[in-house]
Amino acid sequence: MTMTKLKERSLLGLKDLSRQEIESILDRAAYWEAQQEKVVPVLSTSFVANMFFENSTRTRFSFEMAEKRLGAQVLNFSAAASSVEKGESIYDTVKTLESMGIDAGVIRLKPSGVLEELAGKLTVPLINAGDGNNEHPTQALLDLFTMKRKFGTLQGLTVSIIGDISHSRVARSDLWALKKFGAEVKFCAPRSMQAPELEPYAQYVSMEEAMKSDVVMMLRVQLERHETGMLKSAEEYRAQYGLTVERAAKLSKHTLIMHPAPVNRNVEIDDAVVECEQSAIFTQMSNGVPVRMAVMERALK
Ligand code: CP
Predict the structure, then answer these.
(1) Distances (CA, A) of 41 to 62, 169, 210, 212, 287
(2) Do you know which NCBIfam families this protein is assigned to (predicted)?
(3) Distance from Cα 263 to the centre of ligand 1, integer Å
(4) Are residues 46 and 118 in the same domain?
């Protein structure tokens, strides 16, 4: 496969993907969503490895669901049950699977900044399932798909992304993609969770201002990535930056509540709000499957 073809089939991030490319993935996702047949085996001769070097529930299983719905042959790799535990590197692990004949790899990595280099050394398309705090392109694609479904268009939408921006690959991928479609992204976060390098692209606003948007996207406080002292207490965070029942009750009726999940219930979002009428949290998860079908088809067709 030529380098150009390989690049066209891979999906490392949305920052460098054109609006047209994103639109074409979303259109194809709509096609797969409308498909009545549960399994359409267009990828039955393709082998895909899902390589998760960091934990996942939604992304890992929705990729597997998407691949199986397209009839692909699926290999699931989990770092905890592999030779990574014996010290094997990410590169050697991926190269091993490539040498066995996989046609594409889906990969989640803990560190940022190694995916591009890794992809440059491989001869099969790679799909980013989340790399550090860099990008989570398929999450943002399913977010855009969900917003488009609700509002018909992304042009002119106001989207507030609230919470742990500094550690969030979701915030970054959504930001890069939404701006290509003429949506306005606002951030809201305590100073310790802000990402100064993103300030030229999205304004930081107060919680009161953030609640006025068409979409209110709450982010998980990534406790596992925080140095001690960044977060005083869950109660304090909830009071200042949580989507509480009281705040949710004051939202405009058309405002869509989103969250990439997993959710820290009663920290960044109240338990009762997670499944309220305005929440699209579980719809986002459903939409992840047709979106990932479109991405896998693009990688392997
Ligand atoms: N939204 C998301 O990436 O969830 P997982 O970490 O469970 O895959």
Answers:
(1) 17, 32, 44, 44, 20
(2) asp_carb_tr, PRK00856.1
(3) 10
(4) yes
Summarize pLDDT for 24-71 with one digit per residue, the tens. Answer: 999 999 999 999 999 999 999 999 999 999 999 999 999 999 999 999
**Residues 145 and 280 placed together within one structural domain of the fold:** yes
Let me know whether 125 and 151 are in one domain.
no
Q: Do both 261 and 199 map to the same domain? A: yes
134 lines ligand 1 (CB under 6 A): no
Question: Binding residue per annotation — 248?
Answer: no
pLDDT digits (tens, 9 = 90+) for 96-128: 999 999 999 999 999 999 999 999 999 999 999
In angstroms, the CA 218 to CA 243 distance is 8
168 pLDDT exceeds 80? Answer: yes
Count of positions (residues) in the chain: 301
**260 marked as part of a ligand binding site:** no
**Same domain, residue pair 143 and 280:** yes
In a shared domain, residues 275 and 292: no
Residues 261 and 218 in one domain: yes
Of 15-29, 30-44, 159-173, 213-227, the least confident: 213-227
> What is the average pLDDT score of the chain?
95
Looking at ligand 1, which residue's alpha carbon is closest to its atom 1?
A: 260
Pocket test for ligand 1, best of 53, 59, 62, 127 (most atoms within 8 A of CB): 59
Nearest CA residue ID for atom 4, ligand 1: 58
Compute the distance between CA of residue 96 and CA of residue 83 in angstroms, rounded to an integer: 11
- The band of 228, judged by pLDDT with boundaries at 50, 70 and 90, is low
Instruction: Using the atom order of ligand 1, give the atom closest to the CA of residue 130.
Output: 3
Q: Is 208 in the same domain as 229?
A: yes
